[in-house]
Amino acid sequence: MSTPNPPLPEVAPPRVTPRSVLTRLGTLGPLLGLLALAVVATLLNPDFLTASNISNVLTRAAFTGIIAVGMTFVIISGGIDLSVGSLAALIAGSMILIMNSLKGSLGAGVGTILLGMLAALAIGALAGLFHGTTITRGRIEPFIVTLGTLGIYRAVLTYLAQGGAISLDLDIGDRYSPVYYGRLLGIPIPILVFAAVALLGGLILNRTRYGRYVQAIGSNEQVARYAAINVTGVKIATYVLLGVCVGLATILYVPQLGSATPSTGLLWELDAIAAVIIGGTALRGGSGRIWGTVVGAVLLVTIGNVLNLTNIISVYLNAAVTGLVIILVAFFQRGRR
Amino acid sequence: MQAIKRFVLLSAVLAGSASLSQSTPRQVIGVSIPSADHGWTAGVVYHANQAKAALEKKYPNVQIIIKTAKDSTEQANQIQDLATVNKIGALVILPQESAPLTRPVANVKAKGVFVTVVDRGLTDPKAQDAYVAGDNTAFGRVAGEYFVQRLGASGGNVVVLRGIPTVIDNQRVAAFNAAVAKNPKIKVLDAKYGNWNRDDAFKVMQDYLTRFPKIDAVWASDDDMAVGVLRAIQQARRKDIKFVVGGAGMKEMIKKVMDGDQMMPVNVTYPPSMIADAMRLTVESRVTGKPMKATTIIPSVLVTKANAKQFYFPDSPF
Hints:
The structure holds 2 protein chains of 2 kinds. Helices cover 72% and strands 2% of the residues of chain A. Chain A is mainly α. Chain A has a domain at 47-266. In chain A, the strands form 2 sheets. A two-stranded antiparallel sheet of chain A has the order 1-4. Chain A has a two-stranded antiparallel sheet with strand order 2-3. In chain A, β2 (183-184) and β3 form a beta hairpin. Mean pLDDT of chain A is 88; it is low at 6-14. Chain B: GO terms for molecular function: carbohydrate binding. Chain B: This is Periplasmic binding protein/LacI transcriptional regulator.
C-alpha cells in the first residue's frame, strides 16, 4: 500500500488537539501578553520603543522583580509572604539611619555605603529567618505571620520617621546615587542586578538539589518528609532567600530618591505576588518558573507606563486596566491546570 | 440613722466639691486626628502635640487628649470613647473621611460636646459647631496665578501631577486649571495621579518626559511629589523645564525657596499647623465663654524667598 494505515483517530490525535496546543500556548501566556501589550503601546505612542523608555520600564520592574524572584521560591514551596513591601520600607529607613550615623566616624565614603548595604542584607535575612522559623517551628500559617509583620515593619518605620521622611545625608547620597542612576555597558545597574538575580534564581530552582526539594515540598509536603527531605530547613531557607532579595531591592531603591517615608514600598507585596502568579507559578505551590516571574514583573510595570504615555482612558480607570490585564493573562494560562 | 447621717454628710461634701470645681471649671478637650501616615499628617500630629503643650501651659485647667486613628472606623470608636470615658467638653476633629464620620460626630455633639471640624468638612454641617479649614481652591488658584505671571506672555507647556482621587484634589486641580486658563498661551499637556507619593510621582514624571519633548513647568501640587519630580528631571538631564511648584510647605522645600533654588522658586501653603489654630480657637472660646466663629478659613499663600522664613519649622517632621 502506498498510503500508510491511518492511525486510530480516537487514540493518537488527542495529543495534538486544540487542548494540548492551548496548553503549550498557555506556558507562553505571559510572554504573549507582554508582546501584545508592547504592540498596542507602540501603536498608541511610538515613544514607547525608545531606548530611554524601555530602560525606565525595566529599571522600575527591577524593584518588585527582584523581590518576586525570591517570592517565587516561597510560593512554590507552598508559602506566601505579605510583608515584603513593609520590610522594604523598614530596611530603607534603617539603612539610611545607619549610614547617616556612620558618617561621623567613617565619612561619606564607600565604606559607609558598603556597611549600609550589608546592614540591608542582614536585616532582610533576619526578617526571613524570623518568618521561616515562626511558620515552621511555631506552626503558624504563613499568611498570618506575614500579615502580622506587615503591620509591625511599617509601624516601626513610621515611628522612626515620626510619620515624615527619613532622608539620606546629601554627601552620602551623591556617592551612592550611581548604584541606581549609573550604567554599565550602557545598561542601568538595577537592570543588570535584576538580570543576575533572575539568572541565579533560575539556576537554583532548576539545576540544584535545593531547587528540586522546594518544588517537591510544594507539591506534597508529606511525601517530601517521607523522602527524608529536611522540610523545615528548606522552608526556612526560602524565606531567608526572599528576605535577602528584599534587602537587595532596597539597596537599589534607596539611592533613587534618597529617602524613606511611610508610603515607601506600599503594595509591593501585591505586585510581587501578582508577578509570580502571572508568570505561571501555581498559588498553591508545587511548580513555577523564574522566567515567567520576570515577564510578569515587566508586564505589570508596562501597563502603568502605557497608561501614562496615553490619554485615551480616564485616569480614574487605571487600576481597572491593570486588573483586566492580570485576569486576561491568567485566563490564557488556565489550560495548564 | 447612722447610715442616713453619713449619706447626708457625703452628699454635702460632694455638693461642696462640685460647686468648688464650678468656680474653676476643668475643661477636657479631645483632639482626634489621622495617624502620621505621610508627610502632611505627620505635620498635623507634630503641630497638635506642640499646641497641646502650649495650651495646657497657658490654661492650667485645660486638659487636652490627643488620639490618632489610622482609618475612619478607628476614629469613630475613638471619639465615642472620648465622649463616654474621658467626658470631654469639646472635640477638635480632623476626619479621615467626611461621609463615614458625619454620623459619629453628630452623636457626640448630641451629647452636648462642642465640636470643631478641621480641614475635611462633614457631609452634614449641622453635625459641627465650628469649622476650620485650609483653602483648597486658593491652593490651586495661587499656584495657577504664579504660573500665569511667571510664564508671561509667551506662555508654555505645563504638566500636572494630581494627588489621590478625592474632592480635595478635584477642587485644587479645577482651581489651578481655571487660573491658568486666563493665559491662552499656557497649555496643560496632561494631568495624572501621583498619589501624593514620591515613587509614583517619579514614575509619572519619567513618562511625561518620554512623552513630551518640551515642558516648560511642572505643577507637582504637593511637596512629597515634587521630590520625585525633581529626581526624574535630574535623571533625564532635561534642561527645558524652567521650574517646579509643589505645595503644602514641607520644610525641605521651604528651605529651597529660602535659598533661592532656581527649580523651586515658590511654594504654596496648606499648613498642617491648621490643627493648632483650631485647637487654640476652641480652647479660647471654651475658657472665655465667647462664641467661636462658625467658619475659619486659613488662607493658602504664596511662599517666596522674601517671606519663606516665617513658614520654616526645622524641627517638624514635615
